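Holo model, protoporphyrin IX containing FE. Inputs:
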Amino acid sequence: MVKLSPMRAAVFDDPASAPRFSPWDKGRFQLSLGIKAIAPAEWIEVDRHYTAHLVEKRRLLTERHGEVFDALPESGAAQAECLDRLLGHLTRDHPGLVEIDGRHLRVRATGEILNRDDFATAPLDLAGRLVQEDLCLMAPGEGTWRLIAASLCFPARWRLADKLGRPMSAIHAPVPGFNAQLARPVDRFFAKVTAEQPYMRVNWSVIDDATLFQPTGHGRSAFDPTITPENLGDRLHLRVERQTFTALPDSGALVFGIKTVIDPIGVLADRPGLVATLRSTIATMPEDMRGYKSMAPFAGALDTYLAGLEAAAARDGATPPSPPIS
Ligand code: HEM
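Output:
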């Protein structure tokens, strides 16, 4: 057995500093690449939900495997390379999280022992069981990139079956403005991602369902009278995806990692500096984007709630906290 040092304390573990990301903090909506270079050691993040997220992944992979894992036959080499790189990264940068004993991997937090031989034809499935991130593999071809495999337990309102094998433009067809504004910059960006220079970006939404596995739910418009300014601090959530991009040099594929963080929107009561910018970002969001994000059911109540927080902060003379990472 390879003895590893004790599990490093979870890095982003302080509920008091939630939300960890506030990508709306410019105060106006903009569809943008929003990429930021990160160190290779920052690829995977571990937080206080690590055990719960792994347990939920295991449940989904047991009960509805076909919906949360799928891969094209051509993805074998990229899957194997992804697992190898992930194990190297975890050993180096999150020592103690996973113990490696020959062909066996022991996930320290859950006690689960996984045998690499059981995943010989689907190493990406094994990789996805070790980390909170969902892992999607993208392959280059014909001037764009296609999704060739994914371990996707926590989709934000999309189905893997609808996207596997498809290029970026088709994957993003439902996203208002994506193909006109972002498709080409994204393809150019992917070409510069390397293993030595990974990147991240952040996607966010305000949602009325805190479930991690959400295969549907875009474009809902019916007003929901049960969500009120009085109760929405618990009823609505900020759903933020920390998305990472790193390259697999041998197979030529990219790994698109999606780490999902969900906080009740009530956390903003302690972060007055983020309230006004969220309110104005939502106000400047194009109608089709608000529709896509299913904000109509609670838009009025949310604005009243945020206006109330803003007024309370002004009364208290609260000074905005230092800007978070966006
Ligand atoms: C720099 C790269 C990327 C950018 C700028 C980008 C941007 C976006 C944006 C703005 C949305 C709308 C999210 C929302 O507001 O709710 C979105 C949705 C989505 N993205 Fe990306 N994305 C990128 C990479 C990828 C990759 C590599 C995949 C591969 C799986 C992907 C899959 C999706 C899917 C499946 C959706 C939901 C589409 C739907 O509603 O059916 N994205 N993306």
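The chain has twelve helices and ten strands. The mean pLDDT is 93.
Archived with the compound record.
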